[in-house]
């Protein structure tokens, strides 16, 4: 880009030189035209035609000059854009590679996160089942205690009842 900036500066300086030359030449032609016209009365009759011819030639020259300036400008821009395009493509490819690496890292992290979430869900389910099993064990133990208590009552009653039966005999 620096090279193209330098080219642009050189182009602009040369363009300024050419434009100053155009002004100098224009002034000289005006002077010579005025001298030629003011020389004789006969030449004054052709002043308008001479000035029209001069303006026509001057406009054609300026038009060709502007076309050449435009073409040179386009060539400089084309060179700059082609070079920048190459650098841009290299930069895009580097960024694509970097983005692919980042995407791979992100994918691995997402997979780890999903695995972690699945593990957490499984852990929560296991914890819930553990609590349910513990509750069922408490309920079973409670029923067992009640059954043992009932059994003990009935066996005490039977012993008492048998004791009474023995006593009564």
TrEMBL record:
Keywords: Coiled coil. The keyword Coiled coil applies. Residues 1-35, 123-157 form a coiled coil. This is Uncharacterized protein. It comes from marine sediment metagenome.
């Amino acid at each position: 880009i620096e090279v193209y900036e330098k080219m642009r500066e050189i182009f602009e300086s040369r363009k300024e030189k050419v434009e100053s030359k155009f002004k100098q030449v224009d002034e000289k032609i005006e002077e010579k035209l005025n001298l030629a016209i003011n020389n004789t009365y006969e030449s004054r009759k052709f002043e308008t035609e001479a000035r029209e011819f001069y303006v026509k030639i001057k406009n054609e020259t300026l038009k060709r000059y502007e076309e050449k300036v435009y073409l040179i400008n386009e060539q400089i821009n084309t060179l700059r854009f082609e070079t920048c395009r190459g650098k841009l493509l290299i930069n895009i490819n580097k960024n694509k590679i970097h983005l692919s690496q980042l995407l791979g890292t992100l994918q691995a992290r997402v997979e780890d996160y999903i695995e972690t979430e699945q593990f957490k869900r499984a852990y929560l389910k296991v914890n819930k089942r553990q609590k349910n099993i513990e509750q069922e064990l408490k309920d079973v133990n409670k029923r067992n205690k009640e059954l043992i208590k009932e059994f003990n009552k009935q066996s005490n009653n039977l012993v008492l009842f048998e004791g009474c039966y023995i006593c009564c005999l």
